[in-house]
Amino acid sequence: MQVSPSLLSANFANLTPDIEMINRSEADLLHLDVMDGVFVPNISFGFPVMQDVSRICKKPLDVHLMIVEPQNWVSQVRDLNAEYMVFHQEACTHIHRTVQAIHNAGMKAGVSLCPATPITTLEDIIFDLDQVLLMSVNPGFGGQPFIYNTVEKVKRLRNMIDACGSKALINVDGGVNAETGRMLAEAGADILVAGSYVFKAADPEAAIRSLKF
Ligand code: DX5
Ligand code: ZN
């Protein structure tokens, strides 16, 4: 299992110790949640913050764009040296074109689905994807309770991916802790995002280790 801690629950008044913790930890990725106040009812941080973070973070970046018109930001995400650029199916009309642009920029491409969006909307793009990010809360905020029918959704997505031989990894985001993480691991998830479970823990490195199923 790969673990992708979400910086959204870190201390925004002093990010350096939290990123140094991530560097020391067994985390595989660092998850960066970008919100525009339009696609989701919240605003988080933008490119100036992420540029500074990318200079000190030694883990590959998993950039989750909760913004409208994500296709306009490919070169800025590339300039962060990001591993994954992940955008929402609900926020993008030309998904195939955007995936091509992300690949042409040298990044891996991911598409994210809100809890009510069916996985069948990805049937004709799944083979081209490197990641599918299933939201297990409604996007916009950390610390929300896990939506349990995501476990069945992961199983169905696992079958869809395996049936067509896609290399896409299944990432799950929202309300992940050791209990929900184990259920997701058994259902076939490849990556777990965790914000509050990691950064609000007394021992964040141990919290990360507890998700390495
Ligand atoms: C929510 C974000 C998540 C968030 C998860 O819109 O996409 O990445 O940080 O936070 P937790 O793990 O606290 O639910
Ligand atoms: Zn996220």
Give a brief rundown of this model.
With 213 residues, the protein is α/β, with parallel strands linked by helices. 33% of the residues lie in helices and 19% in strands.
Topology readout:
Elements: E1 2-5, H1 15-24, E2 30-35, H2 47-56, E3 61-66, H3 74-78, E4 84-88, H4 95-104, E5 108-113, E6 131-135, H5 150-164, E7 169-173, H6 178-187, E8 191-194, H7 196-199, H8 204-209
Parallel strand pairs: 1-8, 2-3, 3-4, 4-5, 5-6, 6-7, 7-8
Helix content: 25-40%
Percentage of residues in DSSP E strands: 15-25%
Number of helices: 8
Q: What name is given to the CATH topology?
A: TIM Barrel
Radius of gyration: 16 Å
- How do the helices and strands follow one another from N- to C-terminus? EHEHEHEHEEHEHEHH
Main CATH class? Alpha Beta
Plain-language structure description:
The chain is α/β, with parallel strands linked by helices and 213 residues long. It has one domain (2-209): TIM Barrel. It has helices at residues 15-24, 47-56, 74-78, 95-104, 150-164, 178-187, 196-199, 204-209; strands at 2-5, 30-35, 61-66, 84-88, 108-113, 131-135, 169-173, 191-194. The mean pLDDT is 98. Bound molecules: D-xylitol-5-phosphate and zinc ion. Zinc ion binds next to strand 2. Zinc ion binds at residues 6, 31, 33, 64, 173, 193.
Structural descriptors:
single chain; 213 residues; alpha/beta; TIM Barrel; 8-stranded parallel beta sheet; 8 helices; binds D-xylitol-5-phosphate; binds zinc ion
